[in-house]
Write a structure and sequence with these properties.
single chain; 9 helices; mainly alpha
Length: 274
């Protein structure tokens, strides 16, 4: 059990090592947004206006805003920063996959926020904020959102063959695939979620969309800067995809695991007599 737990944690820690600086930068930006909302009337007016539009549009706002932030904008940012050029079929299908995934998750998370408000209330006391963050991260994210996103990517890797994807969900699947991504998700969304739940409830979903879009923007900028570094520069390996942290984590964790498997295979090959 310890070996399984260790092998599931290590890829997540490697990913956090790559992403902790942009995470802190985004979280500081999130703090600035919250402070500005409460202390700078022009910012207050802008966010209140967005909330009015959301109230008029209803659930359609969630079904439109989230896929734009998590599916369309990341690809636009990649093109603007030349992280990726051209629109091959693989890139279009990747964008479509993310967009459709977050249409569904956007609607679900909107109802989730409404349910929490009905159960825990809308006060901004420390106890209420902590309770909402804990339910969000250690119940909703742990047992639904992150596993669903992780499974969706495995389903995509299996060319959308549901039977093949389901066969991968064995007794160790949660530890192997979900836990590494959870570590990254918690590192980003526990601070961001705390800030989010201090805002008026009408802004909860809007702040969540901004959190995803901000991460996409910053990770794209990092990817473009590092990809342009001359050979031999000391840097982290470039981040090739600008997507929300949980999706970025899914890809980087998978990459870290693949690299570890390759090291093990090379070590075994050295030990085999020729």
């Amino acid at each position: 059990m310890k070996s399984h737990l260790r092998s599931s944690i290590e890829p997540g820690l490697q990913t956090l090592h790559k992403l902790w600086k942009p995470f802190v930068a985004i979280e500081l930006l999130g703090l600035a947004i919250v402070l500005s909302y409460f202390n700078w009337p022009p910012v207050t007016a802008v966010f209140d206006r967005i909330a009015e539009v959301k109230a008029k549009v209803g659930i359609a706002f969630a079904a439109i805003a989230m896929p734009i932030a998590c599916g369309l904008l990341p690809e636009v940012f990649k093109s603007l920063t030349r992280v990726e050029r051209g629109w091959p079929r693989s890139r279009l299908t990747f964008m479509l996959h993310n967009s459709l995934l977050f249409v569904v998750l956007g609607v679900i998370v909107e109802f989730f926020y409404l349910w929490m408000n009905g159960w825990l209330g809308t006060s901004k006391t420390a106890g209420t904020v902590i309770a909402k963050v804990c339910i969000d991260q250690f119940v909703y994210s742990t047992f639904f959102a992150v596993p669903a996103i992780t499974f969706s990517f495995n389903w995509r890797r299996r060319d959308y063959q549901l039977g093949a994807a389901l066969r991968d969900v064995d007794a160790n699947w949660f530890l192997r695939e979900v836990v590494p991504v959870l570590l990254v998700n918690w590192a980003y969304w526990i601070p961001m979620g705390t800030l989010m739940y201090t805002l008026p409830t009408k802004l909860t979903f809007i702040y969540g969309v901004i959190g995803n879009a901000a991460s996409a923007t910053l990770l794209t900028a990092i990817a473009g800067r590092k990809a342009s570094m001359p050979t031999g520069s000391v840097s982290l390996r470039p981040i090739p995809l600008a997507i929300p942290p949980v999706l970025e984590a899914t890809i980087l964790v998978d990459r870290a695991r693949s690299a570890e498997n390759q090291r093990v295979e090379k070590r075994d090959e050295v030990g085999v007599p020729t």
